[in-house]
């Protein structure tokens, strides 16, 4: 197997991970988690979203959180998820410098998620882009349900290509191909990633997987083999999507980093410190997390031979 280079990991636990948790974390608890992630040398963190607090109560302290963490950690890329123009305006008020907006490849999922048709969402994207340009904010775009929609099934590759083309034309920083409900399989990820990289070799792409059906890490490998070097992951494997039936956790950050390290791929992240951060998350939430390495330990861990 030919694998080389380094892999970028973007932590999305504070946003995608926490949004379905019943326990609302305080700003102080979130800051502790951010500090622990940064101790592990995580450099890109999606810290929250600027959505209506009634829709996602967990995100209502995103503004306060950003003010404190951005002041403290100036060398870290903090990304806010914004569903619309209003969201980016709120984010800009506190000085957020990088935002991520979501379009769904499936019209039905888009209506459920942001209550807009795909066309309306693309029009909104143009307005967001214009605003970001004026305010010098970097704009990323996630394409949800790229690898399948729980309502519509398979999404044709041409549909994905046409959305990618539209956002590139408008101007975009990173495009994330998101497997919102964990339907992707490694061959599909490899094929689509390869085709996309061939078509747009200069556009940065990132992949976002959920481990709903246990294919999360295999999908990462599929993406790496096709030449993708950037992935979202969530501490402890926390996460879900309120509008995706049965969607479970994101791929787990420490499990991904462990796998990559074992395969001699660089991430610059300290796995031991990441495990400490995950432990902290487990104790804050007071429940078990889906991640494996926190439970089983690293595969390099050796045990004393039991007496016969
Ligand atoms: Zn997600």
Structural summary, described in words:
The chain is 43% helix and 14% strand. The chain is built from 12 helices and 8 strands. The termini are far apart. The longest helix is centred in the middle third of the chain and has 18 residues. It is globular and about 70 Å long. The chain has a single domain, classed as TIM Barrel. By secondary structure, it is an alpha/beta fold. An 8-stranded parallel beta sheet has the order 7-6-5-4-3-2-1-8. Strand 3, helix 4 and strand 4 form a beta-alpha-beta unit. The structure holds zinc ion. Zinc ion (ZN) binds next to loops.
What is the secondary structure topology, with strand pairs?
Elements: E1 8-11, H1 13-17, H2 27-39, E2 44-49, H3 62-72, E3 77-82, H4 85-93, E4 98-104, H5 107-114, H6 118-135, E5 138-144, H7 157-170, E6 175-179, H8 186-199, E7 205-209, H9 216-226, E8 230-233, H10 253-262, H11 271-285, H12 293-296
Parallel strand pairs: 1-2, 1-8, 2-3, 3-4, 4-5, 5-6, 6-7
Helix pairs in contact: 2-3, 2-11, 4-6, 6-7, 8-9, 10-11
The site of zinc ion (ZN) has 8 residues, from loops.
């Amino acid at each position: 197997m030919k694998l080389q280079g380094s892999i970028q990991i973007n932590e999305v636990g504070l946003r995608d991970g926490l949004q379905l948790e019943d326990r609302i974390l305080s700003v102080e608890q979130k800051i502790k988690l951010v500090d622990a992630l940064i101790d592990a040398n995580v450099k890109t963190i999606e810290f929250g979203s600027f959505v209506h607090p009634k829709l996602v109560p967990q995100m209502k302290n995103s503004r306060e959180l950003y003010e404190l963490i951005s002041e403290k950690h100036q060398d870290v890329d903090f990304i806010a998820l914004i569903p619309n123009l209003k969201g980016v305006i709120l984010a800009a008020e506190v000085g957020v410098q990088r935002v991520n907006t979501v379009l769904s490849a499936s019209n039905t999922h888009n209506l459920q998620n942001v209550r807009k048709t795909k066309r309306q969402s693309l029009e909104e994207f143009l307005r967001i882009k214009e605003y970001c340009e004026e305010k010098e904010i970097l704009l990323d775009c996630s394409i949800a349900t790229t690898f399948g929609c729980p309502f519509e099934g398979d999404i044709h590759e041409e549909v994905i290509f046409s959305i990618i083309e539209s956002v590139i034309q408008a101007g975009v920083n990173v495009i994330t191909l998101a497997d919102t409900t964990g339907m992707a399989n490694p061959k599909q990820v490899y094929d689509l990633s390869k085709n996309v990289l061939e078509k747009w070799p200069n556009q940065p792409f990132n992949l976002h997987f959920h481990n709903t059906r246990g294919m999360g890490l295999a999908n990462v490998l599929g993406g790496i083999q096709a030449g993708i070097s950037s992935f979202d992951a969530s501490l402890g494997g926390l996460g879900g999507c309120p509008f995706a039936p049965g969607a479970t956790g994101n791929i787990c950050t420490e499990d991904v980093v462990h796998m990559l390290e074992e395969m001699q791929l660089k991430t610059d992240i300290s796995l031991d410190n990441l495990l400490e951060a995950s432990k902290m998350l487990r104790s804050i939430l007071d429940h078990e997390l889906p991640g494996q390495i926190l439970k089983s330990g690293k595969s390099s861990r050796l045990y004393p031979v039991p007496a016969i």
